Amino acid sequence: MKPVRLGVIGCGVMGARHVQAGCASDAIEVVAVADVRVEAARQLAEKFGVPQVFEGAERLIRERSVDGVVLALPAGLRTPIALEAFAAGKHVLLEKPVARSAKEVRSMIAAKGSLVSACCSSRFRFFESSRVAEAFICSGELGALRVIRCRGIVPAGARPKTPPPAWRLSRSLNGGGILSNWGCYDLDYLLGITGWSLRPREVFASMWGVAPAFAQFVAEGSDAETHVTALVQCEGGTALQIERAEYAVADSRLEWEIVGEHGSLQLAMTPGVGKEHRRYSLNVHTGVASSVLWRGDEHWDFAHAQPIDDFARAIQSGAEPKTSLERALLVQRLTDAIYRSAAEGGSVNFESV
């Protein structure tokens, strides 16, 4: 098939990774880059041999040689650009989180028509380890799913010499803090490897901002959460538990787990050397036994490269991308429900979000 001609809007760290991955894919021809910092766009284009450079998104979107666009911008800037791109007949890949609210995602779904759209919250489900876990869960060997959980705790380190970018803990630019930044990955991963079968009903959550002792660790004006915990009650009795924290006075934890009536899985979502998934099953004579379901090495470069390649191949084949806008809407609705529950101090009916 002919390569899909893509333009990348936003030439920061993630935009550069998309350009690099696009140039390495036989399904893609990166034909344009754009950024309001036109010099950053020129430097990126020169590094990877991209023929066209634009200052800002509008002219790139109108460019006839572009089939689709990658929006590597903060969430607060993406939705209007995505709507403009859809109106111009362009396919759209959005960085994560997909948007600042479910309302924004719904507006994009309404505008896209038959065009392909996808979100990069799918990154960790391209790994072989994820496919193995999904196949095992879907086999039914765990029985009815009882608890699905993530606990990701990052303790505070030394005070950074340079604060993180302003968007990272900004409600207006990013939709939120650690829940938007990392919770979207956790939700996409756990919903995806369970076959997108969970049907949320009620959500109860709490969250907290950066502790005063760490105020100088973050960008001035940061107003989003650094610690969140949530319980999602699903149809059939399955409970989804999420806890994420950064700048925490606590030990490091990175845990993902699926517990069923007949067995459980301890999972590793993020890449690493010697990474493994462990299976726990019942032996009626000796009790619970542990074994390795999958073990191997997986790398960050692969995770960063896959969304744009998957997006292009979906355009070529008409297949659904790993995380379509419709699936990203479920992630965003859960995110919105968690924020709303924390703000209101009570449970939220998922259907009201």
Would you mind describing this structure in some detail?
The chain is an alpha/beta fold and 353 residues long. Helices cover 34% and strands 31% of the residues. It has helices spanning 13-24, 38-48, 58-62, 75-87, 102-112, 128-138, 171-174, 178-193, 300-317, 325-344; strands at 4-9, 28-35, 52-55, 68-71, 91-94, 117-119, 145-155, 200-209, 225-234, 239-248, 253-260, 263-267, 272-283, 287-298, 348-349. The chain has a 9-stranded mixed β-sheet with strand order 14-13-12-11-7-10-9-8-15, with helices on one face. Strand 11 and strand 12 (263-267) form a beta hairpin. The longest helix is centred in the last third of the chain and has 20 residues, at 325-344. The radius of gyration is 21 Å and the shape is globular. The model has no long low-confidence stretch (mean pLDDT 96).
Topology, number of strands: 15
How many alpha or pi helices?
10
Instruction: Tell me the Rg in angstroms.
Output: 21 Å
| Distance, first to last CA | 41 Å
Mean pLDDT: 96
Please give the share of residues in helix: 25-40%
DSSP strand content = 25-35%
Report the structural category: alpha/beta
Shape field: globular
Largest sheet: 9 strands, mixed
SSE string, helices as H and strands as E: EHEHEHEHEHEHEHHEEEEEEEHHE
